[in-house]
Amino acid sequence: MKEYDGVLDDQVTKLRNARNKTLAIIEAQESAAIAQAKDNARNLKEYNQLQFIAACDAAKFLVGIVYKAENMTP
User: Fold this and answer.
1) CB environment 30-68: b (16+ within 10 A), e (fewer)
2) pLDDT tens-digit profile of 18-70?
């Protein structure tokens, strides 16, 4: 029976090692996904800020045209 205990211990050790490797891979993938999500959010925020700035510039331009048109002398 002693020889079977060694085989079982070896199999249990292999399963534990495989489980630990799998958990490490999952944790690395989760970390990478979180980092990617943060990067995407940062990029989206910057993109939205640029869109807002462009919209403000366009609004200033249009207000300037209207102001000039209203103040033109006939």
Assistant:
1) eeeeeeeeeeeeeeeeeeeeeeeeeeeeeeeeeeeeeee
2) 999 999 999 999 999 999 999 999 999 999 999 999 999 999 999 988 888 88
